[in-house]
Structures are given as structure tokens and as C-alpha cells.
Design brief:
Distance between the termini: 39 Å
CATH class: Alpha Beta
Shape: globular
Largest sheet: 9 strands, parallel
Bound molecules: zinc ion
CATH topology: TIM Barrel
CATH superfamily: Metal-dependent hydrolases
Number of strands: 24
Radius of gyration: 21 Å
Helix content: 25-40%
Number of domains: 1
Length: 458
């Protein structure tokens, strides 16, 4: 007798699909069978797909963006953020513990693990964010890896906010990370190009949102990526580029990968869905994030990477600000950059990828579950297989819904997909065998999520 059986569905993994009943005991998948299974609870998944839960490798919950009195706070925390994620099929998130100036990286990580353990309904892990460019930060890398934090975020931009570091320190981190079995994840925008063009447009008196895009041109991403790719060649450190937005940047990543570097590319739904023409609209401010939306042509190149394999992961970069806070901006130079998105990640890619005929359901699973779990060395996630955690989604591929921030429990956040018809909202979701979503409604429990200790990168 199993604890749970999901009967009659088509199980979809990154490497293929089959008709199978899934048996779950003590939070793990213990049977995949053509025979009906006896269980305390049986879910009928006839005509539905059964997929591994989404591993959203890029979220920011409970973030204070900026320093001191200038900082903007996101409008979710470790209860509401994971709850909204779960409604969209996310069963594991990886957030960022970004070191504060003058504080140890370990302090931030420990404090975030404690808060997430108390609040989250789903499992979680953290990337470390190293911002204090000094020896004592480098000395912490080994002990952070021991704790299960095996990736470190580096900002090439945002020096003014106390996040960005110079290339010399990036190389030192890369050497130490490679030595300790860790990788780096990089926000690749060249700070000098951006700060000087922002100042230039500001001085000319421009306020319009299109300058958010014009002051952060595509070449600023390409230059930052090239710097890091050459540093990776020298240090042999594995690199994961978060939110890749440009055709040129993606081409460079693919080129260096062909040369044998361990380098990965992530993009986000907003870069696939929109271009910078939306900044001319009345609600242009609602589409502000960094890097910005790009001129026409880049989205198509990114889709090409999603379909063809140059993009490894699609993640949300969820960073939820309220519409009220967005509208406080007096110009392009003081917007709070970031968007909600973890709840719409799976439905967006399901609708515009699978349902639109661009990608197979297997590729969807690879991009959202299997690859992020494998690249970031998250044990027992990202696959429907015996021995893996029972993080499962039941999805009716024909059923449509209207995307609404309120239904997706985004709190004060909003969605740029508001009102769009989508598919792929899970009917049933379980995390380690326990239901978090039933009939599309949230039934999870705060505090049942666990910190996932990740393995060293080989
Ligand atoms: Zn981010």
C-alpha cells in the first residue's frame, strides 16, 4: 500500500514519455508501473500529463534592493513568495543570499535559510552572493560549499548599490570556487557603459522609460560576458549566466561552450515575450527589470536558443515590486527594477513553447526541471524516477485559464501577463508526496519546505 498513487497519466521526463502509474511512499517515488497501484490516496490523472515539479533557479524573495534609505523592498516574503510559486508548479526554488556590505556572507545565508525554513511551503536552496571584494570573503567560500551552497552570484553591474565587483575580484572568486567545487552565476552587464550612459541621458533631461533600455545597450551585456568567458578560460571555473537577453551574448556563450568551457545560459519569460517597444506605452514602467527588454530581434534569437539547446534553463528572476512602487519612479533613472514571475514561469513556457508547437513537452521539462537540478547539483529533484523526491505536477494540456495576479496569489505584485489566456496551470502539485495544490487551489503549509544541501560541482 503506497501513501499516494497518481494513476492513468502520461509521465513526461526530459528524455521521453510513457504511460505509467506513479506510486509514492514517504515522500519518494517508489513505483512506476503499468498496473493499477493500491494507495491511501489515489489521484486520477487520466488524459493528463505527470511531470517533475519546476526548479525555479532564479528568484528573489524578501529582498531589499539597493542600500540604506534608498533601498526598495520586494512585496513578498518566504511565506507568500513560495505560495505563489507553488500555484505555478514550482516545487523547489533557489534564491540568492546577497552579502551585505561589511557583513559576512555566511551571516546572510544562515539568516535566509532560517527564514525560508520557517515560511516556505516548498523546498529551497540558496546561491551565495559575494559583494565584499576582500580576502575574508574569499576565505568563506570553502565553508559555504560545505554548507551545501555550491554556486556564487557575481554582479558585474550595480557597483553604486554595493553589489558590483571588479574583474580582478571576479577572477579571484572563480579560482577559489573552482578549487572548492563551486561555480559562479553572473549578472553580466558592464557597469561603466551603463553608468556613463545613464548620466548622459539624465543630464540631457530625458526621463522616458525607453531610456531604461537605451542606457543599458546590448553591447554592455556582450562585453561583460566576454570578460567573464575569458576569465573562465583562465580559471577553469564553471559559469552560469543568469538572464541572458542578447543575440550576441548568447552566440559568445555557445562559442566558448564549443571550445570546451563549462558554461551555461539562462533566460526568462519576459525576454522571450516582449521587446523594448513596450517602454513607449503608458505602462512602460511596469516592464522595467535589468537587463532591460531588448530591441526587436533578440527575443527571436533567444527562442532559437530555447528550441535548439543554446539556452539550458528558463527561470523567472522573480523580484516582485508593487505597481504602486513602480509608479513612484520619476524617470527611467529611479525605477525599482524587477517583476513577479515565478507563478507564470511554467504556464508561459507551456503556452508559448509547447502549445505553440515550438518545443516538445520533454524539452519543457529539461529547461524548467531537469537542467536546473543537474547544473546546480540539487539531489533527487528534476525527474520522475524511482528514488527521486515525489515533486510532481498533474497538468491537463487542453485546459486554459486566464492569468491574473490575484488568482496566482501574487500579493501586491502584478503580472505583465495579466488577462492573457494560458495553459499549463497544474491541477495537482505535490512536494515530497504532500499536496500543495489541489484542483488548482493552494493547500500547502508554511514551514514544510526543507533546505536542500547541494553537491559540489565536479
Ligand atoms: Zn535576479
Amino acid at each position: 500500500m503506497f501513501d499516494l498513487a497518481i494513476q492513468g497519466g502520461t509521465v513526461i521526463n526530459a528524455d521521453g514519455r510513457c504511460k505509467a502509474n506513479v506510486g509514492v511512499s514517504e515522500g519518494r517515488i517508489v513505483a512506476l508501473s503499468a498496473e493499477p497501484l493500491k494507495a491511501k490516496r489515489v489521484i486520477d490523472a487520466s488524459d493528463c500529463w505527470v511531470l517533475p515539479g519546476v526548479v525555479d533557479a532564479h528568484v528573489h524573495f524578501d529582498l531589499s534592493q539597493g542600500q540604506g534609505a534608498d533601498a526598495d523592498r520586494t512585496c513578498d516574503d518566504y511565506v507568500s513568495g513560495p505560495r505563489s510559486a507553488a500555484l505555478g508548479g514550482v516545487t523547489t526554488f533557489i534564491d540568492f543570499a546577497i552579502q551585505k556590505q561589511g557583513r559576512r556572507a555566511m551571516e546572510e545565508i544562515r539568516s535566509r535559510i532560517a527564514r525560508a525554513a520557517e515560511g516556505s511551503c516548498i523546498d529551497f536552496s540558496f546561491h551565495g552572493g559575494l559583494t565584499n571584494a576582500n580576502q575574508s570573503t574569499l576565505d568563506e567560500v570553502a565553508s559555504l560549499v560545505d554548507l551545501g551552497v555550491t554556486s556564487f552570484k557575481i554582479f558585474m553591474a550595480y557597483k553604486k548599490w554595493g553589489f558590483g565587483v571588479d574583474l580582478g575580484f571576479v577572477m579571484q572568486v572563480m579560482r577559489e570556487a573552482a578549487r572548492c567545487g563551486a561555480m559562479i552565476c553572473v549578472h553580466a552587464e558592464n557597469d561603466e557603459i551603463i553608468e556613463s550612459s545613464r548620466a548622459y541621458y539624465h543630464e540631457l533631461g530625458h526621463r522616458e522609460m525607453i531610456y531604461h533600455s537605451l542606457s543599458r545597450p546590448p553591447v554592455s551585456e556582450e562585453i561583460a560576458m566576454l570578460d567573464v568567458l575569458l576569465a573562465a578560460r583562465e580559471t577553469r571555473c564553471a559559469v552560469y549566466f543568469v538572464h541572458v537577453t542578447t543575440e550576441g551574448g548568447l552566440k559568445e556563450i555557445a562559442k566558448y561552450r564549443r571550445h570546451g568551457l563549462s558554461v551555461f545560459a539562462e533566460t526568462c519569460p519576459h525576454y522571450l515575450a516582449f521587446n523594448d517597444s513596450v517602454y513607449a506605452g503608458e505602462d512602460g514602467v511596469m516592464y522595467t527589470m535589468t537587463p532591460p527588454l531588448r530591441p526587436p530581434g533578440h527575443s527571436e534569437a533567444l527562442w532559437h536558443g530555447v528550441v535548439g539547446g543554446d539556452i539550458d534553463v528558463v527561470a523567472s528572476d522573480h523580484n516582485s515590486f508593487s505597481a504602486k512602487l513602480k509608479h513612484k519612479a520619476t524617470g527611467f533613472f529611479d525605477v525599482a527594477p524587477g517583476l513577479s514571475g515565478t507563478a507564470t514561469l511554467f504556464p508561459y513556457l507551456f503556452t508559448h513553447g509547447v502549445d505553440a508547437g515550438r518545443i516538445s513537452p520533454e524539452r519543457l521539462v529539461a529547461l524548467l526541471s531537469t537542467h536546473p537540478a543537474r547544473i546546480y547539483r540539487v539531489p533527487n529533484k528534476g525527474k520522475v524516477a524511482i528514488g527521486y523526491d515525489a515533486d510532481l505536477l498533474v497538468v491537463d494540456p487542453r485546459k486554459t485559464f486566464t492569468a491574473r495576479a490575484a488568482d496566482l496569489m501574487m500579493g501586491e505584485g502584478y503580472t505583465i501577463f495579466e488577462g492573457q489566456q494560458m495553459k499549463g496551470r497544474p491541477l495537482f502539485t505535490c512536494c515530497r508526496g504532500e499536496a500543495v495544490v489541489e484542483e488548482g487551489r493552494f493547500v500547502g503549509e508554511a514551514g514544510r519546505g526543507r533546505f536542500l544541501k547541494r553537491l559540489p560541482v565536479s
